[in-house]
Amino acid sequence: MKKKPSQIDLAAIAVHAMEKYGFSARYPGSVMREATDAAGRSPHHIPGTRDMRDLLWSSIDNIDSGDLDQLEHCERLPDGRIHVFVAIADVDAYVPKGSATDRYAAHNGTSVYTGITTFPMLPDVLSKGITSLLPEQDRLAIVSEYTVLFNGELQFGGIFPALVRNKAKLVYEETGDWLAGNGELPARIRDTPGLEAQVRLQHELSLRLRKERMQQGALDLETLEASPVIEDGVVKDLIVVAPNPARIIIEELMVAANRTMIAALENAGLPVIERVVRTPKNWEGIVETAKALGERLPKTPDAKALSAFLTKRKTADPERFPDLSLTVVKLMGPGEYMMLPPGGDPYGHFALAVTDYTHATAPNRRYPDLINQRLIKSVIRHEPPPYTPEELKSLAEHLTDREKAGKKVERFMGKAAAAVLLRDRIGDVFNGIVTGAAEKGTYVRVIVPPAEGRVVEGERGLFVGQKVRVRLLSVDAYRAFIDFAFVEKR
Predict the structure, then answer these.
(1) Dist. CA 46–CA 58, nearest whole Å
(2) Which pTM does this prediction carry?
């Protein structure tokens, strides 16, 4: 009789991964006491706070998300423009700079979502409670206001404090399926008067914004992100988060809101933390990648040419497009945070095809957004900025490091979960695509389930993008190892 494998404690592995990469995985007692006390107090309203609770605010997020950072509301103007309000949770009202909770959040820098266990930047009593824009709750917010022309051009508006009330929490998958014509009208939209027209207007708005950004050279990248399906502590499957119209709504509205935020900060003459993706660090590598696919790119970096190439390849070979996207992402280099002094020349965001960009729409989940919120509030209150340029420079370097470390934790846990899912399939043969071939190792992504591992036998001569069949040799969830042997080309 075959011995049943022992159950692997993925939650314990997640804690180990967090600590391995320098995160705190548990809140100190001082933070929990302070956060609980803060959640029980009524914060001071900023003078001039608008009461906007009567607007038809809604949110779109994952079905299990409780840390809701933003709400959206749009209005069509008589001349065809669309006026937009994006409400951002006022986290600073409950997490003052320098508090124990703030120091903990600054240390971790970000919430880490492993698919097994979530490690929130802020305690749940805050991020899923009083600072979350939960349905049918009155909440303080900072509102970013802008207008979008028919051609997608953006006109920045004001930034101001407001009291808001979420009328409906919507879910990416069911809302996206409905907008794409692949699903029924979600009950929450159907049962909320006016919400169907509101969501359709947001969809129209997102298409305007996206079309304009693509024309400017924004990159349409699609890297695969597999999340484990857990039932009773057991990994049952891996699923890939696919782009859909609802996700595009949030992406486009938040890009525009972030651009509005940084415009306001720069106009006020404040130092800011920019979100930067520099000119690709290895443009020659991107040119060679295109050449191998029969396409030609300019010798010097050109966002519009790269965007056109990616769009063409997505249509021509959708199966391998995620791996091409990942190759381009690696050759471009990672995003980073940088301090921009007053009057300085912006660094730019190559992938989004925008000059000025920041992160300011998710203060429950990312510390740079909380910093920017405090800077914005100092402008609203006509007070000196709460950070010096030197502080912002140091924070930007630290937060770039924390973001990279967070992605390492998430990748580690993705492979650990895949190892658990595959441990009963040693010896099985899978279809896959080669995703990496270098001195440090050759890697393949299995199509079903969507898991990546290393080819440790027969790897010589394989190249990126090649379709292969591989045999599973071994797995190790604790080290996040999945090892394959090459069988044959497909």
Answers:
(1) 23
(2) 0.90
